[in-house]
Design brief:
- This protein has about 150 residues and is mainly alpha-helical.
- It has one domain.
- The longest helix is centred in the first third of the chain and has 27 residues.
- The radius of gyration is 18 Å and the shape is elongated.
- The mean pLDDT is about 80.
């Protein structure tokens, strides 16, 4: 199976803690450019319409499906963490539409309290720190394999 499909399905089917979601977003940013862009677009094409659907159904007083709420929560946390590494125009949409939706509708509908310090708790390393960490690990590995002078 293609790596992009595996990544996408893992993200859609599993709940991650905020720190783990931050790590997943960091790993995502280290993928090859074309793969990263393609995956981000695919995930956004699920996330944005789903968020709009939930907003519309909530405004109309219609029931919200548990499956939709769970998928939205997973993608919301991923994109929130991804904005830390790879800012985009989605950041404005998140602040204006989807953070309020999550706080006022999604978390309560899932029976979960909104983590008040959610944005402050995002303690993942920056992309530069992540790159430096991986470069150091690669150097150590190559040295152990005697591939460096």
């Amino acid at each position: 199976m293609p790596r992009s499909w595996t990544f996408r399905e893992t993200l859609l089917l599993h709940d991650f803690s905020l720190p783990r979601c931050g790590a997943v977003a960091g790993e995502f940013c280290l993928l090859e450019d074309s793969l990263r862009v393609r995956l981000r677009v695919q995930l956004y094409e699920i996330f944005y319409p789903l968020g709009e659907k939930l907003r519309r159904r909530h405004r109309q007083g219609l029931p919200l499906e548990a499956y939709d709420l769970a998928i939205f929560r997973r993608l919301f946390l991923f994109f929130l963490c991804l904005e830390h590494y790879w800012p985009s125009p989605l950041g404005k949409v998140m602040r204006d539409k989807f953070i309020p939706l999550s706080r006022e509708v999604v978390w309560p509908a899932l029976g979960q309290p909104w983590p008040e310090n959610l944005l402050q708790d995002l303690e993942s390393p920056s992309l530069a720190e992540l790159t430096a960490l991986l470069a150091a690990k690669l150097t150590d590995t190559l040295a152990q394999l005697h591939l460096l002078n």
